[in-house]
Amino acid sequence: MFVVKVGGSEGIDYDLFLKDLAGHRDFVLVHGGSNELNEISTKLGKPPVFVTSVSGFTSRLTDRETLDIFNMIYAGKMNKMLVEKLQQLGVNAVGLSGIDGRLLEGRQKRSLKVIENGRKKIIRGDLSGTIEKVNVDLLRLLLDNHYTPVITPPAISYESVAINVDGDRCAAEIAVALRAETLIILSNIPGLLKDPADESSLITRIPRAEIDRHIEEYAKGRMKKKLLAAKEALEGGVKRVILGDARVENQLSKAFQQQGTVIE
Fold this sequence. Notes:
Layout (H helix, E strand, L loop, with lengths): L1 E5 L7 H8 L5 E5 L2 H10 L6 E4 L4 E3 L3 H25 L4 E5 L6 E5 L2 E6 L2 E6 L4 E6 L1 H9 L3 E5 L2 E3 L4 E2 L3 H11 L4 E6 L17 E2 L4 H7 L4 H14 L4 E6 L5 H6 L4 E3 L1
Parallel strand pairs: 1-2, 1-13, 2-10, 5-10, 6-11, 13-15, 14-16
Antiparallel strand pairs: 3-4, 3-7, 6-9, 7-8, 11-12, 15-16
Helix pairs in contact: 2-3, 5-7, 6-7
């Protein structure tokens, strides 16, 4: 059993990725859709707003209108595109968001503590949160009956309100809940880079004990969340996390050969 998360950034070749993925069995796919969301929300007159927490992590500011567009892209266009393509490749995929069957449940954040123009600021009313429960029974029901779950945020709060959650950390929680041996996180870069502008500066191995140092020294932007997700997965019992590149052929197979950034 493994869990694979494919991002939604610009440059990802979904056809290459899914062709490779379809050759494997016993997995759960988690996906994003950030680039598509940014483009569509901007066209709809609701351009994305990002904030940086006091701990240095970047996230999307999510009000109700943003969440509605989020659902349209993630749970709609992106999810059904991936399910359709997997069906064409012979994989009996079922698309779900974290809301369905309370698949991903957690707590809505009461406030966000962010840095804006060098000053600390508190934002309230944001529809984001953190996953605390995974409906493993629902996932097992699907897997045991030979369906392949294709999962996307948002999650649902204890008050039954949809909440935006990070896709990489979502994949980590699912991997822990399913007791998966491996979590693979694919995006539009080869893995963690010492220099974000130089793809040849790939860091190929990170000892588990040094994740925090690598977050502090090397991770920029979205990569911080990917390493945080890796840390949470390993702490939850996952044996290895591999960060790889979804732009090239056979990248999933290469990840299993421990190409990319391997954390174990």
